[in-house]
Amino acid sequence: MANKREENQRRWKCGWDRERLELDRKLKEQLNRNKFDKSSSMINHGDVLKALSRALNKTEYLDIADKMLMENPELALMGSCVLVMLMKGEHVYVMNVGDSRAVLAQKAEPEYWLGKVKQDLERINEETLHDLEGFDVDKFSSIPDLTAFQLSVDHSTNEKEEVQRIKNEHPDDPCAVMNDRVKGSLKPKWNNALLEMFKIDYKGNSPYITCVPSLHLQRLGPQILRIIIRWLSQYLTNEEAVSDVELFITL
């Protein structure tokens, strides 16, 4: 039993080491994709993105968790969402882990607005539309329309790439993704008895849930930026959330 436990602990450690290497690789890919014109050449965007990832490492005490992992392997099964946004001048830097979402709302073409927002609002709730019945149409039609552009990448089973990553890393575990969740048969993961069962059922050399952040650099124009928190993005589309905010601003 002791040998088996040591073997499992070594596998966890190797998994975390691969996470670090994966983070460096993704950071380099982001830098290659995010090249701007000479006006932004004074800013080293790579240093900013790297600073964000280092801040995550220090804030989440990943080094301490690595040291405690040998005695407390359940630490690798815990975590929460992180969404960080930094604005400097005309650039915005976004880092996320999990399915918290950052959405950029920007002005759309004038002719795009009139039918679009009412269509979106119908999907939000009928009560809000009822309140608009006495609204001045001229005033209502002057609202500047906003369209939604998602800046972050959801780390959830709604993303095919994330599901494929988990299945590729755990090919011997048919239960890696169940009920649209990672190890979905164990939804109440805070239950100690079920957590112990999950530890025993662990398969493979890599953690099921990654802590590698997604990094994004976006150049802004005459746009409005808004962070949409996790629970909201589960019930509203990006467009519906932006329309909701747009309406609230004008009331």
Automatic annotation (TrEMBL):
* Domain PPM-type phosphatase, residue spans: 1-251
Transmembrane regions: none
What are the GO MF terms of this UniProt record? protein serine/threonine phosphatase activity
State the SUPFAM superfamilies in the record: PP2C-like
Q: Which InterPro entries match?
A: PP2C, PPM-type-like_dom_sf, PPM-type_phosphatase-like_dom
Q: Which SMART domains match?
A: PP2Cc (SM00332)
Question: This protein is called what?
Answer: PPM-type phosphatase domain-containing protein
* Organism annotation: Gossypium darwinii
